[in-house]
Specification:
seven-stranded antiparallel sheet; Alpha-D-Glucose-1,6-Bisphosphate, Chain A, domain 4; about 30% helix; 4 helices
Length: about 160
Amino acid sequence: MKMLWLVVALVVAACGPSNAEVKVAKTAQYTAAAGTLFDLAIQAAQRDYKIGEVDPEGAQFATDPQFYSPEGGRQSAGAGGFVNMSPGSILLSLVVEIVKTERGHAVVITPKSFQVISGSPKPRELAPDDPNLPGWVHGRVDSLAVAIYEAAKQHAAAP
């Protein structure tokens, strides 16, 4: 019986952040200076992503573009540095921006994604609200939002 509860606990823990955690993270406003929040956001993002373009003056950065399978698994470069993509593969970068609000600052994360289309030499861009955008992309946005919130919650303004 104890083993069953252990398995249930592991499955629940592996599911990622709850809807409540995601909502808190995405709606949080912070009293910290933009530069402080920016540094905390980069540190949190570096735990799971390589950092690409950084614009400290604009208080935004992007994760390095990474190819993912249609199901959301990372596709890494093999021999010769080439990624073996398949139709439906997604090239994803997460753009993180610190924006000014009435109560301080907020963190906005926007996915920038391109989908490989069979027979097309150029992938198509998928807007954040595109119905063809796989759900796992929003899951990655949500997980990063929660990670940044966890790193910066000591600066969160009272709700």
